[in-house]
Amino acid sequence: MLREFDEQQFPPFEGFPKESIAFLKKLKKNNNRDWFNAHKNDYEEQIKFPMQSFIASLQPLFADFASQFDVHPKRSMFRIYRDTRFSKDKTPYKTHMAAHFVLRGKPKGFEGSGYYLHIAPGEVFIGGGIYLPDNDQLKKIRKYLAEHSKEFLAIINKPSFKKMFPAITGQKLSRPPKGYDPNHPMIEWLKMKQFFTGLEMKEEICHKKDFVKLIAKHCKELMPLVDFMNKAMGF
User: Fewest Cβ atoms nearer than 10 Å: which of 78, 82, 221, 234?
Assistant: First the structure.
């Protein structure tokens, strides 16, 4: 019998069990519906339930520095099912577990700037910013960036930020965007098509009880960048 909990009944997070990673490794070797359906209870107990407990324990920590974000055990967790409609890879399941924390009222995905957590065999990734802005969002970001360059540079050059997140990554235009002087002091930033940064950590860290506090610490450091991008887009 599977355990049923509402969002108020998740127990305190004690670390992801070793069985979580073991399940993902098995899923990678058996990525088909027959195997998954035969092990659905294992998924619920070893992946879904621990992740929901983690998110429930993260919520009060997030409330201290980013209360405008939706940190919810059910809404914030990504589904295990892959969208294979436009992919050559037709395997039906993801072989990682992930969560995305977005502004309240926004759909989970990549609308606006937010936080992303990814746990897979051998790695943990925590990141923030905007990964796939559309053309309208990108125009707004560039305009805001040009007008608030000192604020942006202060955020990314803050010593504690640079120590955790040394680089803002993403695709870049080869030429200056239309309407911007090639000699603009922020031109290399204005060429950016994505504004996202993150940190990879060893898998072992996710099994520790204080993993939730560690992720909250990293998200708090990311908050000024996430907030800057949302202000730029008018969110």
Answer: 234
Which H helix or E strand runs over 26?
helix 18-29
Provide φ and ψ at 122, rounded to 5°: 90, -10
Architecture of domain 18-233: 2-Layer Sandwich (3.30)
Query: Is 99's pLDDT higher than 90?
Result: yes
Instruction: Note whether 233 and 137 are within 8 A (CB).
Output: yes
* Cβ contact 176:190 at 8 Å: yes
Note the pLDDT tens digit of each residue in 137-153: 999 999 999 999 999 99
Give the Cα separation of 215 and 35 in Å (integer): 32
Calculated CA dihedral for residues 113, 232, 171, 90, nearest 10 degrees: 30
- Distance, CA of 36 to CA of 42 (rounded, Å): 9
| 4 pLDDT tier (thresholds 50, 70, 90) | very low
What is the torsion angle, in degrees rounded to the nearest 10, for the CA atoms of residue 134, residue 137, residue 140 and residue 141?
Answer: -90
pTM attached to this predicted model: 0.92
Distance of CA 228 to the CA centre of its chain: 17
